[in-house]
Design brief:
The structure is a single chain. With 306 residues, the chain is an alpha/beta fold. The protein folds into two domains: 155 residues, HUPs (Rossmann fold, 3-Layer(aba) Sandwich), CATH 3.40.50; 120 residues, Riboflavin kinase-like (Elongation Factor Tu (Ef-tu), domain 3, Beta Barrel), CATH 2.40.30.30. It is built from ten helices and 14 strands. A six-stranded parallel β-sheet has the order 1-4-3-2-5-6, with helices on both faces. Helix 5 crosses helix 6. The longest helix has 19 residues. 35% of the residues are buried.
């Protein structure tokens, strides 16, 4: 898969294109990407995605922007798994936000991405002041030589699939609901780093991942499965948060793997959140924290029937 930064240089050839933020790459995104790949196969064009960094809402209102479901790396990996061959990541800054709808079409869609077939969500808006809509895209496509189609919403168990719905499910501890909307368990991945090694001293060694999601989409203690360390995911229990009892201030993901004793510092792993056990909280002392960690491990083992 090829990743292009910005639209100053055109992609190598004409494309079948989908546009979106794709935060979480949920089942609604999956339906759009499946349609993109169908079009790509029928036209012989490479399936290509245009996405933005940062999320536009982070640019316009950083203080109230929603928690990200995926980092840029995670999003790119998920788009690749969905069959995308090319991704153009456009820096969403003041210059980009000031593009008129006509300039967006001319400079980005036609000049940068050489679009021949475009697929967008049915609520897609673009250009300065969100002035561009589907009707404008259709008119521009008729003039510039690309077809345009819109994808409707996807529902699961009567619920419209959306990134905001996934965020609500995660914040409420609804891992099962989040998995329904995503089409898979919620995942955070990253590189294992060295921590304070308190868990090892207490008999519960952990793999620590520094978290780039800020703010976090959720916090707490979870039953997890970890990929990247063998042919099958490994069961474990994890704490995601700032660890107030030990004076933590930065988000950290700590994962204790059951019946596992390998040195995995530097490994890139993916942590799948299967079930929430409890909220993160401050304990009066380390003894109380150690007792709760042991109880969490017992509860997670019971979940897996280990």
């Amino acid at each position: 898969m090829r990743v292009f930064r910005g639209f100053s240089r055109p992609v190598p050839g004409p494309t079948a294109l989908a546009i979106g933020n794709f935060d979480g790459v949920h089942r609604g995104h999956g339906a759009l990407l499946a349609r993109l790949c169908d079009v790509a196969r029928s036209t012989g064009l490479p399936p290509t995605v245009l996405t933005f960094e940062p999320h536009p809402r982070e640019f316009f209102a950083p203080a109230s922007a929603p928690a990200r479901l995926t980092t840029l790396r995670e999003k790119i990996e998920l788009l690749g798994e969905a069959g995308v061959d090319q991704i153009m990541v456009c820096r969403f800054n003041a210059e980009f936000a000031a593009l008129t709808p006509d300039s967006f079409v001319t400079r980005v869609l036609v000049g940068g991405l050489r679009t021949r077939h475009l697929i967008v969500g049915d609520d897609f808006r673009f250009g300065k002041g969100r002035a561009g809509d589907f009707a404008l895209l259709q008119a521009a496509g008729a003039t510039s030589g690309f077809a345009v189609e819109a994808m409707g919403s996807v529902t699961v168990a009567g619920e419209r699939v959306s990134s905001s719905g996934v965020r609500e499910a995660l914040a409420a501890g609804g891992m099962e609901r989040a998995a329904r909307l995503l089409g898979r368990p919620y995942i955070i991945d990253g590189q294992v780093t060295r921590g304070q090694q308190l868990g090892r001293q207490w008999g519960f060694p952990t793999a620590n991942l520094r978290i780039k999601h800020n703010p976090l989409p959720m916090t707490g203690v979870f039953v997890v499965e970890v990929g990247g360390l063998g042919e099958r995911p490994l069961p474990g229990v994890a704490n995601l948060g700032i660890r107030p009892t030990v004076g933590g201030t930065r988000p950290l993901l700590e994962v204790h793997l059951f019946d596992f004793d390998r040195d995995i510092y530097g490994a890139h792993i993916s942590v799948r959140f299967v079930h929430k056990l409890r909220d993160e909280r401050r304990f009066p002392d380390f003894d109380a924290l150690k007792a709760q960690i042991a109880a969490d491990a017992v509860a997670a083992r019971a979940f897996f029937k280990l």
